[in-house]
């Protein structure tokens, strides 16, 4: 049986992430990892904060903190939110870790040995006031296209045009605000991707057949346009330093590796962090997951803007080392989740951010909605109206109401134990066959990483219970045939237990509440087999049960009004 290695794109350190970041990487990775664990697979889910690069330094400066202190605090703040969403990383590391420094420098040395790194002189903006070269993002000015006066030297966030620092009107340093800038010559390291193009293309041809079209098309677009040699160092105070034993002059100048060189290596480094955290007596072998790891199936999750780096640049880096590092087997890419037609934006604080989401409602509300509306084939748009409709119809009415109706009615008429009643009849046999079929569909969609389809299959499982309950109508049966009513309720309680088990990847907290309603002494079931689904007999008669609190409260019109007042929503944000 293959071991499953799962990574999700590293959330950047400069602030709390919005719901688009959550649904585009970490949440679907968690759903998939949970499902695989329940099916008995050996799973390792790795993630980390991405802590290097210009935005980290600028954010720390704005916060009045050292970069180290800022990143440490932000890592802890982000991890607390991910814990709140129920994300079960095996390890959530930091790209500023000692392990990542060591591995990034190792990769660079190997690439140099094999002739894939070259030192080149380039012309770059130098700030006289700051006495340093400025990366493109450290230069701000007025966009020549739209007049936005806070455009960066690499791109205008207002009109999204790609820029060169020399394009800006009245450019100035983002550090000091000084306009005393001049262009000087400096040296940087370049990864010679052009020399690796044929090997990367061959690898893509051999491995991307099963990838979603979104991922494979982006990768092939980059290959068609031709891989360009890319600078992999920057002039920053914070980052993985260029090793002095190989490049003494650049090391003396304080060069560090570019964030998009070291960030993907952090997947490997975070796995080493995980192993090292076990201590000397631990039994965690990080290298077996990444080096000569032929029995490992590696799945990556990310939004579409990250695809080029993971499908082309990082594999090129791995190939260039001439070492047997594990490369991705399946790259699950997502489109954008928008907010009323406009983009979520961290820098402009537009949309719903994960900390605010958890303040409003429990994590399972968000988990279910986001996966059920995951932007897989196209961009999707968050609206409060769509969110409330999904929560009220699927969670509150279809699942929550079923659980409450069944348990409350049974307790009222039969007491605190699961009633025995008559033997299962044709209706129960028909229900078992239907549940087994829907469960197989659900499993198939999760195996294929088709999350919206999996959510639809899960919703159909919940609906099947409601249809059975309406057909049997135990509130009428009990008037003429108490044993028949008891059978219906016992069968429905078994459905609740089945829902608890198979819904856990989507709504883990609610699944736990449903499962704990039954006092089963040996309830160790990790999943439900087809035979168990047909039999619906996991909760035998006589089992004590309790009625849990309401699983999902409905979102009211007053709630919607307050949400829109706080976060916006409607015509004013469309197209923003």
Could you describe the 3D structure shown?
- The chain has 576 residues and is of the alpha/beta class.
- Helices cover 47% and strands 14% of the residues.
- It is built from 19 helices and 17 strands.
- The strands form five sheets. Strands 3-2-1-13-14 form a five-stranded parallel β-sheet, sandwiched between helices. Strands 5-4-9-10 form a four-stranded antiparallel β-sheet.
- A hairpin with a 4-residue loop joins strand 4 and strand 5.
- The longest helix is centred in the last third of the chain and has 31 residues.
- It is an enzyme of class 6 (ligase).
- It is found in: Cytoplasm.
- This is Methionine--tRNA ligase.
- Its cofactor is Zn(2+).
The pLDDT mean sits at 94
Shape: elongated
Largest sheet: 5 strands, parallel
Strand content: 5-15%
Counting copies of identical and different chains, the oligomeric state is single chain
User: How many DSSP helices?
Assistant: 19
User: Percent range for helical residues?
Assistant: 40-55%
Radius of gyration: 27 Å
Q: Report the span from N to C terminus.
A: 48 Å
Q: Record the strand order, biggest sheet.
A: 3-2-1-13-14
SS-based class: alpha/beta
Low-confidence stretches: 572-576
Question: How many β-strands, per DSSP?
Answer: 17
């Amino acid at each position: 049986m293959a071991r499953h290695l799962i990574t999700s794109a590293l959330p950047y350190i400069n602030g709390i992430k919005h719901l688009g970041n959550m649904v585009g990487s970490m949440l679907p990775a968690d759903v998939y990892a949970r499902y695989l664990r329940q099916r008995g697979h050996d799973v390792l889910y790795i993630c980390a904060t991405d802590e290097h690069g210009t935005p980290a330094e600028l954010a720390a400066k704005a916060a009045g903190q050292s970069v180290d202190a800022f990143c440490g605090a932000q890592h802890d703040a982000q991890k607390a939110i991910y814990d709140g969403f129920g994300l079960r990383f095996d390890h959530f590391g930091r790209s500023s870790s000692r392990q990542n420094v060591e591995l990034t420098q190792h990769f660079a040395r190997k690439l140099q040995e094999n002739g894939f790194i070259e030192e080149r002189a380039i012309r770059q903006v130098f700030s006289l006031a700051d006495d340093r070269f400025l990366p493109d993002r450290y230069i701000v000015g007025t966009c020549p296209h739209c007049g936005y006066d806070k455009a960066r030297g690499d791109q205008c966030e207002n009109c999204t045009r790609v820029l060169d620092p020399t394009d800006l009107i009245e450019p100035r340093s983002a550090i000091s605000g000084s306009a005393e800038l001049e262009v000087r010559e400096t040296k940087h390291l370049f990864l010679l991707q052009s020399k690796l193009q044929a090997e990367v293309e061959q690898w893509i041809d051999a491995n991307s057949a099963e990838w979603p079209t979104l991922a494979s098309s982006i990768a092939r677009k980059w290959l068609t346009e031709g891989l360009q040699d890319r600078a992999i160092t920057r002039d920053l105070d914070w980052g993985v330093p260029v090793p002095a034993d190989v490049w003494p002059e650049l090391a003396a100048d304080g060069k560090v590796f570019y964030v998009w060189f070291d960030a993907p290596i952090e997947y490997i480094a975070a796995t080493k962090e995980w192993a090292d955290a076990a201590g000397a007596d631990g039994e965690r072998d990080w290298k077996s997951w990444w080096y000569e790891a032929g029995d490992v199936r590696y799945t990556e999750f990310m939004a579409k803007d990250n695809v080029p780096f993971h499908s082309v640049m990082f594999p090129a880096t791995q190939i260039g080392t001439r070492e047997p590092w594990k490369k991705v087997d399946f790259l699950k890419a997502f489109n954008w989740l928008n907010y009323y037609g406009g983009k979520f934006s961290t820098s402009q604080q537009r949309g719903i951010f994960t900390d605010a989401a958890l303040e409003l409602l429990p994590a399972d509300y968000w988990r279910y909605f986001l996966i059920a509306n995951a932007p897989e084939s196209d961009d999707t748009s968050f609206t409060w109206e769509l969110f409330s409709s999904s929560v009220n119809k699927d969670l509150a009415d279809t699942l929550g109401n079923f659980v409450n109706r069944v348990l409350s009615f049974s307790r009222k008429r039969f007491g605190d134990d699961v009633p025995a009643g008559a033997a299962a009849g044709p209706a129960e046999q028909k229900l078992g066959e239907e549940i087994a079929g829907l469960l197989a569909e659900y499993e198939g969609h999760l195996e294929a990483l088709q999350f919206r389809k999996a959510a639809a299959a899960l919703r159909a499982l919940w609906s099947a219970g409601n249809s059975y309950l309406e057909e049997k109508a135990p509130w009428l049966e009990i008037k003429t045939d108490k044993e028949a009513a008891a059978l219906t309720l016992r069968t429905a309680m078994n459905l609740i237990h089945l829902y608890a088990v198979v819904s856990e990847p989507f709504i883990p907290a609610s699944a736990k509440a449903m499962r704990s309603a039954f006092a089963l002494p040996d309830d160790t079931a990790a999943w439900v087999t087809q035979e168990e689904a047909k039999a619906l007999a996991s909760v035998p008669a006589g089992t004590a049960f309790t009625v849990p609190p309401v699983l999902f409260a409905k979102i009211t019109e007053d709630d919607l009004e307050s949400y829109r007042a706080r976060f916006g929503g409607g015509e004013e944000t469309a197209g923003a």
